[in-house]
Amino acid sequence: EVQLVESGGGLVQAGGSLRLSCTVSGFSFDDYAIGWFRQAPGKEREGVSCIGSRGASTHVADSVKGRFTISRDNAKNTVYLQMNSLKPEDTAVYYCNAAGTHWGQGTQVTVSS
Prior knowledge:
Layout: E1 3-7, E2 10-13, E3 18-25, E4 34-39, E5 46-51, E6 58-60, E7 68-73, E8 78-83, E9 92-98, E10 102-103, E11 107-112
Parallel strand pairs: 2-11
Antiparallel strand pairs: 1-3, 3-8, 4-5, 4-9, 5-6, 7-8, 9-10, 9-11
């Protein structure tokens, strides 16, 4: 059974930082790209960042470029999202996705002004 478990969310003041983790099991982690998405209340889920299977290629949405960094540790089956200079508009539930098909349960990020 494929499982994705996100962690690291929380409440932070604007300008602060958080690091999200997504740990994957039951899946050939090394073979697939992993993505981070977010969904704010009343809005559609949107892509934030993704990373290729070996970590050589990454993509970051324009809205978070220069503030968020994605990385992965294949030895730990984990992908990270380092979020710096957080803004209130970053408030959302953050989800990771594996191979475009498997989703985690999400972790709440709340940024206060």
